[in-house]
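Here is one chain, start to finish.
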Amino acid sequence: MPETVDDLRDEIRRAVGRHERIESTAFTKEALAAICDAVGYEIDTNHLPPKSEMRAGILWTLGVVETDAPDEVDHPFRKAELEAIADALRE
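Its structure:
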């Protein structure tokens, strides 16, 4: 059975030491910061950047997008993007 978006989000949360969510929800800033750390995208953890900046940085680090410009990823992660992140964290 294919994984749902919620399954992928929870797998990613577990992989970076965050807790699963009962309800369907996008990642919090703190969860995105943990993913940034896990994939090697450096951010200022004293003042977390906007979500779009962290999402773009994560996808850029994984080679999913060509730039880490926040306006390129101004939406919650799509299923294919979640799959790419989950695959990277499985390695």
